[in-house]
Inverse folding.
């Protein structure tokens, strides 16, 4: 139900707005006048509680998402989208220490984004009368509020739907997920910031209007509607309560906790990984020592097995002359073993023990011991994933390897046999599999 419109100034200068208001008021869209919002729980306080939770958590989701974009290397043209105009973020060399950095930031981004879905839906439920208010605006201020509301609601729903689908299914969109998700994020950010600026004073007043502990002690029988509010969230003629406010808080909190239990294992690992039943990479894939997550199989990447056998050679470029090494030559070089996480943009991560040749040693063997960067090329056919550019600090990190083995066994074909890149804190997509060449560059 909407609240009564405010008194209109009868000054002739306001004649047209007054006529427009009355015309819109008297001619609502078909069926809108019959909608009744009767829940006795809706009101500024409950909406503000959900809003306060989102105000704390969503900035973390936003910041970690933007950090993921930077980790993908926009200065090298590897971040998608690359050409973002004035929305380009300040770029810097993504740190290669600590090794769990990307696992943490992307795990928080995806994990908290999923956990907040019940809270987002509850917040939308709590303000739905406002979304259907008619006329939709009464002044320039309310026009701005409605625009910010449209951006934040549309933006968050788009980000949630596309994000969840991208986690569950590979490459199902008829458009670039990364491009759409990036620009959609900025629409949401703009709506979020402007909406907070407009509604923060109202939220603070509403939260102070009653004690949270008192609400938790109030039973369903003692639950009464909040006082009527100017935004029309409180129903003037509510139905009897079927749930207390503490009940709805428990339902929403329990839903968020359930999502956490069913998803967090994909990042945390260990025994919790078996609980990650909502996410396709929550469980392990492979055999024996290679029994861990696979994002793209060799078949998906269209890898020709004949090119990964005895015929395979690694080319080292960028020095005085090309250097060609077979697998036996690589195995004869000093071998190093590291325990490092492999973390992907979809939020999953896994920690394995990798063995192989340091990239720094390969750079020295190529004749460029202090490269400014390196371009790794793969046998893979997908243009977006068949190469990656590594920064100087990533190449020279003593834990950065051209891995030949994992957990004491040769890499399986699906995990990148005969050789793959493993670099601390690097997004998994840039830990290139089926490596064919490495070009060490001066800059």
């Amino acid at each position: 139900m909407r609240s009564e419109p405010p008194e209109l100034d009868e000054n002739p200068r306001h004649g047209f707005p007054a006529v427009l208001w009355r015309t819109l008021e008297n001619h609502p869209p078909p069926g809108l006048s019959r909608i009744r919002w009767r829940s006795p729980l809706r009101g500024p306080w409950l909406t503000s509680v959900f809003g306060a939770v989102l105000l704390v958590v969503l900035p973390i989701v936003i910041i970690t998402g933007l950090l993921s974009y930077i980790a993908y290397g926009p200065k090298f043209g590897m971040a998608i989208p690359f050409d973002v105009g004035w929305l380009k973020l300040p770029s810097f060399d993504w740190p290669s220490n600590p090794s769990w950095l990307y696992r943490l930031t992307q795990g928080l981004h995806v994990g908290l984004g999923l956990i907040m879905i019940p809270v987002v839906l509850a917040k939308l439920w709590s303000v739905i009368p406002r979304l259907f208010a008619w006329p939709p605006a009464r002044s320039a201020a309310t026009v701005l509020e409605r625009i910010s509301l449209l951006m934040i609601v549309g933006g968050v729903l788009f980000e949630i739907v596309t994000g969840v689908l991208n986690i569950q299914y590979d490459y199902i969109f008829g458009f670039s997920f990364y491009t759409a998700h990036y620009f959609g994020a900025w629409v949401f950010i703009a709506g979020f910031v402007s909406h907070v600026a407009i509604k923060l004073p109202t939220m603070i007043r509403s939260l102070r209007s009653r004690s949270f502990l008192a609400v938790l002690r109030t039973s369903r029988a003692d639950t009464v509607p909040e006082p009527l509010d100017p935004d029309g969230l409180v129903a003037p003629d509510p139905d009897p309560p079927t749930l207390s406010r503490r009940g709805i808080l428990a339902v929403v909190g329990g839903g968020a906790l359930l999502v956490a239990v069913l998803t967090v294992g994909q990042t945390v690992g260990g025994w919790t990984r078996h609980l990650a039943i909502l996410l396709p990479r929550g469980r392990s894939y492979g055999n024996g020592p290679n029994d861990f997550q696979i994002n793209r199989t060799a078949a998906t990447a269209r890898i020709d097995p004949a090119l990964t056998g005895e015929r395979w050679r690694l080319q080292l470029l960028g020095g005085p002359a090309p250097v060609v090494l077979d697998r036996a030559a690589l195995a004869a070089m000093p071998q190093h073993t590291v325990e490092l996480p492999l973390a992907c943009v979809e939020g999953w991560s896994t920690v394995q023990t990798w063995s192989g040749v340091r990239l720094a040693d390969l750079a020295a063997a190529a004749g460029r011991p202090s490269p400014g960067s390196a371009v790794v090329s793969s046998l893979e056919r997908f243009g977006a994933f068949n190469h990656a550019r590594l920064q100087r600090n990533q190449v020279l990190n003593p834990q950065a390897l051209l891995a030949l083995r994992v957990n004491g066994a040769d890499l399986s074909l699906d995990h990148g046999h005969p050789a793959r890149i493993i670099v601390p804190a690097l997004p998994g997509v840039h830990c290139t599999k089926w490596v064919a060449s490495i070009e060490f560059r001066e800059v």
User: Anything to note?
Assistant: The radius of gyration is 28 Å. Confidence is low (pLDDT under 50) at residues 1-13. The first strand starts at residue 314 and ends at 317.
